[in-house]
Amino acid sequence: MVLVRQGFIAAIGALLSVGSVAEPCVTLTGDARQGGLLWGQVDPATEVRFHGRDVPVTPDGSFLLGIGRDAPSQLTLEVVKDSPCQQSVTIGQRDYKIQRIEGVPQRTVTPPQEQLDRIARERVLVRDAKAVRLERPDLLSAVRAGMRWPLLGPITGVYGSQRVYNGTPRSPHYGVDVAAPTGQPVRAPAPGIVTLAEPDLFYSGGTIILDHGYGLSSSFLHLSQVSVAVGQEIAVGDVIGAVGATGRATGPHLDWRMSWFDQRIDPQLLVPSMPSIDKSP
Ligand SMILES: [Zn+2]
């Protein structure tokens, strides 16, 4: 009797544990780690929320999720249609290059008001450009099919790295830096619509923002030439500008950044590894 009862309890236990490993509502593909992009597919007209944000869905039901630099190890995906469901997405945690520099003399430079005003104005320009909501499924499919490097050269800075001066962390580096001589052409890594084309911003110098749609955009910083205009549609591989050292840059390089809404994405996860020999694009 006791044995039978134990067997019964074990069977119930097995049922419960099977029940608790619920079928995921959506199968996600892509790179489930900090800085990565995930792709999903639902029935058209389904609502998707990720980590509390409404996610735009294409007319055929596909969607894109971006994972920020400091995303926690679990994020919640909610799908709302006839039967709402929820799933926890496990996010790979990365180790970023942190450089601690001690004993740096404190610089107590107070920028003049004029400069502060300029920085504030430019911040609004960039924010407004990124607030454009473009929904072009064709652009998104092109990103999904694969992106290309905007130019080739040695990688001198990576996503997520951070310097800590005298114990005070600076804001992390969100782009991938590619060193190249001034004037080297920069090409669109994927198609998009230009939402910002500024020849000389205080920090980032010649700057272009290319919107790939559904919250995803690329920014190109420190350009010596900006060869595109706001509203222009760009095909993959089109020359959009030239490498420079404009703004606050120590030498000529391209700083390529990507965002999914307010989350910073690692562009290097979306392109093949940088070829090491040939420098010509
Ligand atoms: Zn950089």
Polypeptide structure, described:
The protein folds into two domains: 16-90, Immunoglobulin-like (Sandwich); 113-270, Glucose Permease (Domain IIA) (Distorted Sandwich). The N and C termini lie far apart (77 Å). Strands 9, 12, 14, 15, 16, 18, 20 and 21 form an eight-stranded antiparallel sheet that branches. 16% of the residues lie in helices and 35% in strands. By secondary structure, it is α+β, with helices and mostly antiparallel strands.
Structure summary:
The protein has helices spanning 2-20, 113-130, 137-145, and strands at residues 29-30, 37-41, 47-50, 53-55, 62-66, 74-80, 85-90, 98-101, 155-157, 162-165, 168-169, 176-179, 185-187, 192-201, 205-213, 216-223, 225-226, 233-234, 239-242, 253-260, 263-265. The protein has 281 residues and is α+β, with helices and mostly antiparallel strands.
The number of helices is 3
Q: Please identify, by name, the CATH architecture of the largest domain.
A: Distorted Sandwich
Structural Rg: 23 Å
Overall geometry: globular
Mean pLDDT: 89
CATH superfamily of the largest domain: Glucose Permease (Domain IIA)
Element order: H for helix, E for strand = HEEEEEEEEHHEEEEEEEEEEEEE
For the record, give the distance between the C-alpha atoms at the N and C termini, rounded to a whole number.
77 Å
Share in β-strands? 25-35%
Number of strands: 21
Biggest sheet details: 8 strands, antiparallel
- Computed structural class: alpha+beta
CATH class wording of the largest domain = Mainly Beta
CATH topology of the largest domain: Glucose Permease (Domain IIA)
Low-confidence stretches: 1-21
Helix content: 10-25%
Ligand set: zinc ion
